[in-house]
């Protein structure tokens, strides 16, 4: 069944508490990358609000009850963002910041489910997360479990055919317990542009939404408020490197990490 | 063997609510009953092998033990990265049951051949490799291993032996002799028995390569000469003997499917014959090597 897209407007500012948390999380991401001289910082920053809403946002503020969900970060190179949020959510200690990327560390440039508490799937090679999410959603249906599966993928990752195969499966099996979030941070611009993405997803029978991926009201409303009889796909428009002006939409920073001096400059900017 | 797979897997799905069956649009008629009885966990997922393996991994992450089935090259070669990462690296349990073997679909040509499957999967650490030689061997191996919590690959073959060898030991002695040791894998045992009937050698049979080195303790390689005969690209058995070889000064002859595209059609038997697997040709090669 084809469904219409839903565009949520207008944006609502995030609460002061959330913004304060997000500043600390951005600093944690930058610090870990700066110490390790490794990591995909802009990709982590583009999805930080989304991860915060999934793991940390107080749903009661939005008149919602907490839900059981499984989360897969398919764009595993944004692991810095996931580690920062999982540490804040007490899955492990803040010590990860100093361990990131080290030889014996649990916290690598891509997350390992067998090492990191809270990481459901080991990702890194793009196009693997959504098929696994579809399998989990099918498994939950087979068990009549009410858990929702949330898979976060990148827009560039949509080049991988396995995503489109999986959408075919998800639609065929009417996986209403599956939510796919596309981090639309313009990563695909330099190769295959994902033009008419909403139309493509609608043609695949998804219930689609397009939101500001940095606006918590929109994220929460879209993820948790609307029931669906079909798989839900949320196009989250984000800015790569969001919050750090030097990094925003600057391809030079894609896989670059700040020096100690740059880190201090960025912290100053974030704390303004 | 395919019929036995349908029967065993259907029974497993019926009796185990944590078993899931995923078909790549292959074997659908044979599984029609169980597909109809358990539509939520016995699914003809479609012709999309990469996603099929990923979906199977999702089932495994959710606590199911998946059984995945399609033609060998589309499973092993097309979806190799999914098997490697989603199952191997993540240490997830799953069963991959292929049809077609090296060239069972001989008349369909190279696209449906898969003589590389066992050597490819040998490079995914922790993968159990099962190459049954009869339907009975498949049934035993499948029923006793499908729920072992590991990554398992079962290679179904159309070509089968006349006798089943079922044992806890991976290395099973078929006949004894003195001049050499021949190790043969899976469904080509009968032709190797025929080819070595007049040769004085040990004949050891294998249908379970396991995930790692084979245990050769207590086994003497006769005449310090070993012939390894495999119904796919040769190498995996020798790979599993490396520690043994390090300690023993042996001469080795490997006989396997040649590494070339087999562009003929016809029947599997015609391919075997043209590739030197006719009993008379095997006899000549083995005899020449052991010097009898």
Mean pLDDT of chain A: 92
Number of helices of chain A: 10
Strand order of the largest sheet of chain A: 1-5-6-4-3-2
Largest sheet of chain B: 7 strands, mixed
- pLDDT averaged over residues of chain B: 96
Structural class of the helix and strand makeup of chain B? alpha/beta
Order of helices and strands of chain B: HEHEHEHHEHEHEEEHEEEHHEHH
Radius of gyration of chain B: 19 Å
Q: Report the sheet-strand fraction of chain A.
A: 5-15%
Helix content of chain B: 25-40%
Q: Which class of secondary structure composition applies to the elements of chain A?
A: alpha/beta
Tell me the major beta sheet of chain A.
Answer: 6 strands, parallel
What is the percent of helical residues of chain A?
A: 25-40%
Strand elements of chain B, count: 12
The chain pair with the largest interface is: A-B, 32 and 30 residues
CA-CA gap between termini of chain B: 37 Å
Can you give a write-up of this model?
The complex is a heterodimer of chains A (272) and B (292). With 272 residues, chain A is an alpha/beta fold. Chain A has helices at 16-36, 41-46, 48-55, 79-88, 96-99, 129-142, 161-172, 197-203, 216-225, 260-270; strands at 6-7, 69-73, 148-154, 178-184, 207-212, 232-237. In chain A, helix 1 (16-36) crosses helix 4 and helix 3 (48-55) runs parallel beside helix 4. The longest helix of chain A is centred in the N-terminal third of the chain and has 21 residues, at 16-36. Chain A is globular and about 50 Å long. Chain B is α/β, with parallel strands linked by helices and 292 residues long. Chain B is built from twelve helices and twelve strands. Chain B has helices spanning 2-15, 32-37, 49-61, 72-77, 80-89, 117-122, 135-145, 189-195, 236-239, 242-247, 268-274, 279-290; strands spanning 19-23, 42-44, 65-71, 94-99, 127-130, 151-155, 172-175, 181-185, 202-206, 208-210, 225-229, 251-255. In chain B, the strands form two sheets. In chain B, strands 2-1-3-4-6-5-10 form a seven-stranded mixed β-sheet, sandwiched between helices. In chain B, strands 7-9-8-11-12 form a five-stranded mixed β-sheet, covered by helices on one side. In chain B, helix 7 (135-145) links the parallel strand 5 (127-130) and strand 6. Chain B is globular, with a radius of gyration of 19 Å. The model of chain B has no long low-confidence stretch (mean pLDDT 96). The A-B interface holds A 70, 113-114, 120-122, 124-125, 127-128, 130-143, 161-162, 165-166, 168-169, 172-173 and B 20, 40-41, 43, 45-46, 48, 50-64, 66, 81-82, 85-86, 89-91.
